[in-house]
Amino acid sequence: MTGPGISRRSLQNAGINVSFEFFPPASDKMEEALWNSVQRLAPLGPEFVSVTYGAGGSTRERTMRTVARLAKETDLQVAGHLTCVDATINEVDAVVREYWAAGVRSIVALRGDPSGGAGEEFIYRPESYQNAAHLCAGIHAHGGFDIIVSAYPEKHPDSPDFATDIEMLKRKVENGATRAITQFFFDNDLYEAYVERVRRAGIYIPIVPGILPVHNFQKVSTFASRCGTHVPIWLADRFEGLEDDPQTASLVAAAVAADQVMDLIERGVTDFHFYTMNRSNLSFAICHLLGLRAKPVDDGHTEAAA
Ligand code: FAD
Q1: Rounded to the nearest whole angstrom, what is the distance from the C-alpha of residue 128 to the centroid of ligand 1?
Q2: For residue 84, is it within any domain?
Q3: Residue 2, in any domain of the structure
Q4: In terms of residue numbers, what domain contains 111?
Q5: 21 tagged catalytic
Q6: How far apart are CA 75 and CA 47, in angstroms?
Q7: Which residues contact 160 (CB under 8 A, 6 or more apart)?
Q8: How many domains does the chain have?
Q9: Series of mean pLDDT values for 10-residue runs along the chain (306 residues)
Q10: Sign of CA pseudo-dihedral 190, 55, 59, 164
Q11: Is 0.90 topped by the overall pTM?
Q12: Fewer CB within 10 Å, N side or C side of the chain?
């Protein structure tokens, strides 16, 4: 299958790069699901994989354990997420040093959601990094890290307007960020308009679209409303009546995400970040549609060919 206007040949030559985001498992069962997903997705040759840091810094130990294991036991480039909410500058700097000691060389630097989760009021503490730009400066001062940050095609809910939001992105870049990953979105026009705004503001780092395959429409729409992501009517229509039919919902989710990434490729996008939710099936299927293939190699491992 190719998207409208995209030939199979041009897709294979498109030079697609992907990255995968996981969250740290909270139980043995979840741990197994995570490693199964890593094993399935790793042969596709992602540019990097990342591991989230729970709201309010709540998963610090689990994140560190997962990141360290990925760095030690796989050949994958690993990015550790790091938030500065509800922690002092010293505490956050200690995590930066731990990442470095574990061999991690990329950090996704974020202010973070408060412990109550997305949408809760953020309380600024004087002894903390004040926002992601401030945190970028701290990580940059350590040296040696590739710094990745967030970007919001529909603006962050805390930002009064796009200008304020993009000003924050600019400060993050001035303080060392070299790439941004967007909040998930479903309307590619909004992403394109945002990238134009960002470029007009003189920001030239890659703005990599964050793609969230819709594993569960109800959960995704609730989360979207807290994050300020617009859920188009056409998307709700596609999942209507599938509440008790996860198998069909999953097929629809793959089709929806495939449509979205194919359209983005037509608009010139080559890099994609997948919010996997620690499940490999949808992300794997979409990457397959993007032309990525797992290639067996002699030593019993596999590596990707695009
Ligand atoms: P920032 O970029 O610092 O700020 C967001 C907006 O808030 C700014 O645009 C600015 O207008 C406003 N703002 C910031 N500081 C101030 C201030 N001092 N005064 C007034 N307004 C201010 N959350 C987690 O908890 N853990 C994760 O692992 C995680 N990973 C993520 C990965 C990606 C790719 C993305 C897009 C988001 C992720 N999040 C994560 C969610 C993120 O933490 C939240 O969206 C959070 O509310 C903002 O963090 P930020 O780094 O984007 O904030």
Answers
A1: 14
A2: yes
A3: no
A4: 8-305
A5: yes
A6: 11
A7: none
A8: 1
A9: 44 78 96 96 97 88 96 97 94 97 97 78 86 98 98 96 98 98 98 98 98 96 95 97 96 96 96 97 94 68 50
A10: positive
A11: yes
A12: N
